Amino acid sequence: MRSRHSHSAIVRSCILGLALLMALFLLPHSSDAAPPAPAADKIEAQVLDGLAKSGQTTFWLILSSAEDLGKASRIRDWGERGRFVYNQLRSTADASQAGLIALLQARQTKYRAFWLVNAIQVTGGPVLLNELAARPEVIRIVADRVYHIPTPTPSAKRIRTEDIEWNIAHIRAPQVWATFGVRGEDIVVANIDGGVDFTHPALVAQYRGNLGGGIFDHNYNWFDPYHICGIQGSIPCDNDGHGTHTMGTMLGSEGESGPNQIGVAPRARWIAAKGCEGFSCSDESLLAAGQWILAPTDLNGQNPRAELRPHIVNNSWGGPSNDPFYRAVVQAWEAAGIFNTFAIGNDGEGGCRTAGSPGDYPESYGVGAFDRDNRIADFSSRGPSAVDENIKPNISAPGVDVRSSIPGGNYDAFDGTSMAAPHVAGVVALMWSAAPTLVGDIAATRALLDESAIDSEDLRCGGTPAKNNVWGEGRLDAFAAVERSPRGAFSS
User: Fold this and answer.
1) C-beta separation of 177 from 385 below 8 A
2) Domain residue spans in the chain?
3) Cα first-last separation, the chain
4) pLDDT tier at 41 (50, 70, 90 boundaries)?
5) Residue 342, beta-bridge partner list
6) Of 144, 193, 347, 371, catalytic
7) Maximum pairwise Cα distance, the chain
8) Is there a contact between 285 and 225 (Cβ–Cβ < 8 Å)?
């Protein structure tokens, strides 16, 4: 949802902390006195600032990772591929973290270990900090962060006359349903967001945890790392409205005729990870959510099952440009065959080179926003990417006056690249449903999206008429993307 403050601000919360979680290193073992000068460049200043204020702070230990995930793309079985990636990452983390965890347990120190980026979150004072910094397996120590999401601003109210929302019709999703007979069957999508109202009439039937007859099983289908929803996070909720909206654009529908057809792929199934606690997103929650996407767990956070990971994950959050931390997460998803979409950010009024992370990574499929008159939204962030100078966004989708579900069984319209990104996730669900040989083939899927996009010339930030730093490859076209997919023999 768009705030006048910008979408990067929307979850500058979520990702600036993530960025800096990759940042620095700390000092060798010493007393409680200030660290010796040669080690000063190895520690993020915020860690020492936190210690100076309270004598104790929360910080992150970053360890090296040497696992090889290159073989994963050659594994055709979905379950086997996911388990391979999970086992590689987990074995690296377990081996390299063992000594540190033993030390932390001996010191009776609060900590939380992560395997996806090989990191440990620790709360402690200067003596412990110096002791940990002296360990050879620790390569960086950085500060813990929490940021805030601005209250979203709705679109201008209008008289609504469509049963199928304008944005869904605009990308020609209904022609896919009618011509190819697919609406996302057999595909599971997810979002990392502020949660989802699983009882919403446009979403409840598609929830993977819905067993029918009013019975729900949230194990492996819902993740709330801070236990905000229900008892110990056991029941899905959405306390900011954002995640219910983005999920609705991916697959929301109260029925395949009549009003409130708000989603691109209404027969896909969904699961969700609450990466934002509310109007804030901690680095801990976002990292835990990214980890759960690759290997969902039961409600106790135990017994991970990588075969139950989603096929596609939408991320309608982002932050400053060239922010490296979440890149390891995105790379692991890609190795496991999970297609990612990211909002490119709402800083377009600032001009070129405003594309935010993680959408500006080469591995991320970043999405810009346009309106119903095929005009680029003034807020849609522009490239080139500060990471590698390549074209960003990758593509653009409807992101102005997008009506979708909100908690409580209601609907509302919002502006933002947050609203644009889930359109692409929904189109990938249609493509993979129509052409199962594409499932997990990230490179081929990206190529088809790129080739089928409608060219939109705008050279203000560089590029070509067919591919530029305002529109990317152009306007999303669901019908053209599915038509070009390797569907095999088709008969009407």
Assistant:
1) no
2) 22-144, 166-484
3) 39
4) low
5) 315, 366
6) 193
7) 77
8) yes
401 counts as catalytic: no
For residue 123, which amino acid is it? T
CA–CA distance, 444 with 437 (Å, rounded to integer): 10
Q: CA-to-CA distance for 316 and 43, rounded, in angstroms?
A: 31
Mean pLDDT of the chain: 88
φ, ψ (nearest 5 deg) of residue 226: -100, 5
In single-letter form, the type of residue at position 226 comes to: Y
CA dihedral 286, 289, 294, 299 (to 10 degrees): 160
Look up 41 and say whether it is catalytic: no
Correct CATH for 166-484 of 3.40.50.1440, 3.40.50.200, 3.40.50.970, 1.10.1370.30: 3.40.50.200
> What's the pTM value of the predicted model, to 2 decimals?
0.90
Angstrom distances, CA of residue 449 to CA of 65, 89, 173, 179, 261: 32, 30, 14, 19, 23
Token look-up 């120590």 returns: 141
Bridge partners of 464? Answer: 467
3-state SS string for 406-434: ECCCEEEEECCHHHHHHHHHHHHHHHHHH
Q: Cβ distance 379 to 351 under 8 Å?
A: no
Mean pLDDT of 190-198: 96
From 13, 418, 452, 485, the catalytic residue: 418
Task: Give the strand pairing for 467-468 and 463-464.
Answer: antiparallel
189 vs 246: CA distance, rounded Å: 11
85: number of Cβ within 10 Å: 26
pLDDT tens track for 316-348: 988 889 988 889 999 999 999 999 999 999 999
**CB-based contact 44:142 (threshold 8 Å):** yes
**Residue 170 annotated among the catalytic residues of the structure:** no
Q: Are 429 and 265 in contact (CB under 8 A)?
A: yes
Identify the CA nearest to 470 among candidates 418, 372, 392, 415: 392
